[in-house]
Design goal:
Length: about 160
């Protein structure tokens, strides 16, 4: 079954009209799915064509980058005093790069905790709205939150029955 949808008031005459309108909404959903599927097929085709057209250019670019790197490596002595050589169409150079390699994340995380290196542990904190539903209104007010209760209209389409129509 599809997700429940919210809408603002309708102008139908009876329950039969409501039921017929739900059938029309279900048909519209099916038509939209077909349109979306066709669009996704065309998009995938375009992506494949673009990938094929771009591959020779990507290969040539990679070869050119390798040639520049090889030349710079062969002339590395020129970078002894300066890190970057500025040319007409760009710059080439070497930079010191430091990476931290972690073999087993869980073990490293536990070791950081054990050795009290809390500053080296990244944590993301955010309010858990689902858990906050259990709080009273007074408790919510204490933490700067409030409960908003709405009685909103929604509908669901019975796709199985719609298939027979």
């Amino acid at each position: 079954m599809a997700a429940r949808k919210r809408i603002e008031g309708t102008q139908l005459q009876g329950w039969d009209d409501v039921d017929a309108t739900l059938a029309q909404i279900g048909q519209a959903d099916r038509e939209l799915q077909l349109i979306e599927a066709a669009a996704n097929e065309r998009i995938e085709g375009c992506k494949q064509a673009m990938k094929q057209a771009a591959q020779p250019v990507l290969d040539r670019k990679a070869a050119l980058e390798l040639a520049v790197k090889e030349y710079c490596d062969a002339n590395r002595a020129e970078f002894a005093k300066v890190k970057t050589k500025t040319l007409t169409f760009g710059e080439v150079g070497y930079r010191t790069s430091t990476k931290i390699m972690i073999k087993r994340v869980a073990e490293t995380l536990q070791a950081l905790k054990d050795l009290a290196f809390a500053a080296c542990i990244r944590t993301k904190e955010e309010p858990d709205k689902e858990a906050m539903k259990a709080l009273t209104d007074e408790q919510l007010a204490e933490v700067g939150a409030a409960r908003k209760v709405e009685n909103v209209f929604g509908y669901t389409i019975n796709q199985e029955r719609l298939q027979g129509v």
